Amino acid sequence: MNQADERTRRAVEAVWRIEAPRLIAGLARIVGDIGVAEDLAQDALIAALEQWPDEGVPRSPGAWLMAVGKRRAVDLIRRDRTYARKLALVGRDLDADESESGLGIEPDAIEDDLLGLVFTACHPVLAPQARVALTLRLLGGLTTVQIARAYLVPEATIAQRIVRAKRLLTQQRVPFEVPAGAQLAERLPSVLEVVYLIFNEGYSATAGDDWMRPALCEDALRLARVLAGLMPAEPEVHGLAALLEIQSSRVAARGGAGGGVVLLADQDRGRWNRLMIRRGFAALAKADALAKARGRAPGPYLLQAAIAASHARALTTQDTDWAVIARLYDALIVLLPSPVVALNRAVVVGMARGPAAGLALVDELAGSGELKDYHLLPAVRADLLARLGRYGEARTELEYAAPLARNAAERALLLERAAALPR
């Protein structure tokens, strides 16, 4: 392959990463099937790889890919009578694509198609793991290999999840559409949860040798920004964007030499990304204003963004307004009564009201048995015990926590903390 061909190949890959979600979304609206739409989009990509080296990259590469995809859709429709009624629509769109402007797609239509793709990929009929894989594939532009590597599972497993997800959407006749009214409110949490799950796996990897997978954080943040642009009137969408912006600002400070873990209290806050923090504050202000304008109480993502913002405002751990964060957690636990949120609240209560108060909450959680295999429960208990001077008990808790951790970096940190405690 000569240099010109290599440059063209890189250009095709760059265009594909940007345009693939819009392309698949537009084609899915026409054929009504995400799996078929992805196949048509892949056909358009192959055509670009074949033609652009000779003809050059077109002035509007996204419109070129869409026109090719729609022509493939016409061929499909002609072969399948069930799609016959859509032929006239495709023909009109093709005429528009070939107009003098070369664009042929209204921005509002693109946004509607992208929203339809988001809500279809994150449909509650799919299991959460399938939603995550399909969203990363269709909206994140990741390959099956990249998704498998990020989640430390075999490529075949991810491929099966994606294939089964697309098949289930077809079998269940899930419509390619943006739900309205009550249905939108009911399904939006599923969409936000998927983006949040992707970010969390990048921010604190559940297993493997790496403490973080920043590429996943970047993908989730990009998706959150897209959602904020597509749904500008939804407070929780901006709340999620604010949360991920602020959390992403810490990524560079969370890793030490050799990939070790640097906890919040030990981070060099001068390494926090101030631009991301400012973006997060702006998104949080917008979310708060929208919620108040609608007469709504803050939702879970808005509350979590407010908690992250409180940390971001403090120059040191000692400067943190723990009382404010404790009140935010008091509100959050009502909306998200999960044991993990309860454990995080116990940490904050321990900072705001003293380690004994925090320990009482942790012991209550431990007694429930809900987090019996969760390594952070004994890790948090150890920290509170150490602050009370009960070092022997703290060491025991850390040594118990270490083998429960599936992430190698976290496991190493827990053992280091145990060894460092006074004897």
Q: In percent terms, what proportion of residues is strand?
A: under 5%
Count of beta strands: 0
In angstroms, what is the radius of gyration?
A: 24 Å
Structural class: mainly alpha
Provide structural commentary.
One of its GO terms (molecular function) is DNA binding. There is one protein chain. The model is unreliable at 96-105 (pLDDT under 50). The termini are far apart. It is elongated, with a radius of gyration of 24 Å. Among the domains are: 3-105, no CATH class; 339-423, Tetratricopeptide repeat domain (Serine Threonine Protein Phosphatase 5, Tetratricopeptide repeat, Alpha Horseshoe), CATH 1.25.40.10. The longest helix is centred in the N-terminal third of the chain and has 29 residues, at 3-31. The protein is built from 19 helices and no strands. α3 (61-79) runs antiparallel to α4 (87-97), α6 crosses α8 and α9 (181-203) packs antiparallel against α10. It is mainly α. 71% of the residues lie in helices and 0% in strands.
